[in-house]
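Example S7 (structure tokens).
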């Protein structure tokens, strides 16, 4: 899905650089939000095809940002993959309960991330 618009919501610069470069090399168009509030605002404006959402972020965390997106009918359908450093029992459930489609644990396996992204972009194509 070259050219697909992906919103990356992440507050750590090192992670932003790594993920953005990798995604750009796979020919996605990447925009970056640096906190949860920005992520919700940019999703409302840009309607990305997929969102990568860090969970631990300032202003508004990723879980609240996911809930806000799912509560807005104009953007509620956009697939969201949660990114979290926490590997505590119950975290996956928290992300999924908030409305994330899927979940990937940091440090992110870049190949696994691309596979997940492609899976959800394909599903979107088939259902819209
Ligand atoms: Mn973070």
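Recovered sequence:
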């Amino acid at each position: 899905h070259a050219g697909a618009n992906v919103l990356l919501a992440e507050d750590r610069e090192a992670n932003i650089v790594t993920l953005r470069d990798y995604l750009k090399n796979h020919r996605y168009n990447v925009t970056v939000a640096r906190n949860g509030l920005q992520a919700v605002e940019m999703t409302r404006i840009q309607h990305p095809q997929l969102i990568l959402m860090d969970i631990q972020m300032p202003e508004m965390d990723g879980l609240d940002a996911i809930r806000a997106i799912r509560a807005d009918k104009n953007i509620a359908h956009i697939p969201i993959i949660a990114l979290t450093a926490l590997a505590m029992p119950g975290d996956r459930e928290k992300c999924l309960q908030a409305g994330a489609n899927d979940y990937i644990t940091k440090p992110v396996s870049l190949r696994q991330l691309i596979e997940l992204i492609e899976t959800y972009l394909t599903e979107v194509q088939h259902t819209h």
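Notes on this example. The first helix runs from residue 13 to 25.
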